């Protein structure tokens, strides 16, 4: 059985764009929407690509900006300038 990883983001204008980009890059992900935040669960791994987020927001995006919208995450993080990966035992 594959364990889920997750990320929870605030439902701000920028947060909704990031959520859309994450959902586009992770077809197995499930978004659970609440009034103030959205929790995204995905089996095994969840990837966030800077290019996809930039396209969705219509501007250059630095993955360090994710901390401004982030509520919490579950999993081990591996990141570089172009992608952030959340996985268990990555």
Rg over alpha carbons: 12 Å
* Name of the CATH homologous superfamily: Monooxygenase component MmoB/DmpM
Major β-sheet profile: 4 strands, antiparallel
Protein structure class: alpha+beta
Question: Any idea how many domains?
Answer: 1
Approximate helicity band: 10-25%
> What do the pLDDT scores average to?
95
CATH architecture: Alpha-Beta Complex
Distance between the amino and carboxyl termini: 16 Å
According to CATH, what is the class? Alpha Beta
- Please tell me what the overall shape is: globular
Unreliable segments of 5+ consecutive residues: none
- Along the chain, the helix and strand elements come as EHEEEHEEE
Q: How many helices in DSSP terms?
A: 2
State the total count of DSSP E strands: 7
GO molecular function: monooxygenase activity
Protein name: Phenol hydroxylase component
Organism: Novosphingobium nitrogenifigens DSM 19370
Family: Belongs to the TmoD/XamoD family.
């Amino acid at each position: 059985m594959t364990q889920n990883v997750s990320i929870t983001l605030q439902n701000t204008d920028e947060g909704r764009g990031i959520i859309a980009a994450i959902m586009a890059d992770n077809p197995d992900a499930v978004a659970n929407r609440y009034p103030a935040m959205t929790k995204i669960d995905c089996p095994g791994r969840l990837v966030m690509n800077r290019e996809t987020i930039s396209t969705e927001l219509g501007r250059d995006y630095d993955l360090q900006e994710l901390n401004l919208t982030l509520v919490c995450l579950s999993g081990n993080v591996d990141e570089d300038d172009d992608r952030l990966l959340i996985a268990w035992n990555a």
